[in-house]
Here is the input.
Amino acid sequence: MRAVWFLSRLVFGAVFVYAGTMKMADAAGFAATVFNYQILPANMVYGAAMVLPALEVVCGVSLWVNSLARAASVVLNLLMAAFMGALGWAMARGLDVECGCFGAAGSSGAREALIRDAVILAVGLVAMWGAFATADDDKV
Here is the structure.
């Protein structure tokens, strides 16, 4: 089981390092995507567009090096749930939004993004389970 936890931690971290890096490479484009979701007030969009990708990269690297992996896995799983909620909310309101999940590199419709995000969230939950399970084993 440790191999599954290890692999899920690396894959989950890699997804977020890649996603965050792509968003940082086109910060203005990502800010426009965030704005299109019509969830945040306009004066908070650019701040969110700067902080979220950096948080994704830091937490992803933390999973890779297994430093603060429990906290990083919790934060990233919460972000995944929030992203999925935002996509669902946009779909429910009939907004035509691009996912923005991987910056300009991975534009897809909301429905496809929700399916992909559900798979990523499943991997993230396994990574989080492993981070907590192995931390408990280390204390013995």
The first strand starts at residue 101 and ends at 104. The chain has five helices and one strand.
